[in-house]
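**User:**
Make up any protein.

**Assistant:**
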Amino acid sequence: MSPNSFLTVRDLLRYATTRFNGAALFFGHGSSNAFDEAAYLILHTLKLPLDKLDPFLDARLLPDEIDAVLQVVERRCTDRVPAAYLTNEAWLGDYRFYVDERVIVPRSFIAELIPEQLAPWVRDADAVRHVLDLCTGSGCLPIMLADAFPDAAIDAVDISADALAVARRNVEEYGLQDRITLHESDLYSRLPQRSYDLIISNPPYVNAGSMATLPPEYLREPQLALAGGADGMDLVRKIVAGAGERLTPGGVLVVEIGNERAFAEAAFPDLELTWVSTSAGDDMVFLLTAEQLQQR
C-alpha cells in the first residue's frame, strides 16, 4: 500500500483497523479490539492527545507522518509486537509506565484493588508502614501502592536485573526513590529481615499447557515472567510458604493467579483461600491472612 493512498487520520484509522482484523492479532495488552488499538497507535505516533481522536480525524497529514504510522502498523501485524512495546508505554488506570521488552506489559487485577487500599481486608490503611511486592516487573504496583499508603516504605523484588532497570526508571519518573527500594532477589532470599503489613504478588503463574498455546504477542514477553511450571503454582507455593514469618500480626498476603483458581485450590488444600472480586470475576486474586499462614 503506497503512502500516497492516504491523506487523513481517518484514512489511516480505517486501514489499520482492517489490517489488524485481517492479521487476526491478539489484543490483551491494553486494548480489546482492533479499532481501539489502531486509534491508540496512530495518536501516539503522531504525538496527539490520546483522548482526542475526533478533532483530528480529517486532519491532512504530511508524507513523513503517514510513513511513520504505516511502519508502526506493519510492525504490529508482521512481527506481532505488542502495542506497548511499540510505544514504550503502558497504562494501569491513570498511571502511565515506561515499558520495553525487558518486562511483561503491566496488567494486573490487583491494581484495581489498590486505590481502595485493599479494603476491607486491610483494616487500618493509615497503620501500614511496610509493604512488599514480589515479582515487581516494571514496578507498576509499588508506585500505585505508594500513593495508596502514603506512610509506607515499599520493598519491590524481582529476580531479573533487566526488569529492575525498567522498574528503576519508573520509580525515578514518579520521584519515589526514597520510598520504594528495589531488590534483585529470588523472592525472599536476599531481602532484609523485616516484617510487612502487606505482601502482594503478581507472579509467573501460567501453567505448562497454557504456555504451549500462548498467542504470538505473549511470546514477545519475557517467558521468565509468565511460566509458572506444570500447574502454574511453582512460585506461588514459595510465596505462600514464606509469607507467614514475614507478615505482621493482622497482615495480609494478596496473590494474583489469573485463570488458575483450580490449580491454586489444589496446591493449598489446607488453606481456605479468600477470593477477591475484580472486574474479571472472583477467580483471579486470592488473599490469606497472617493468622492463617502462621497457624499452618
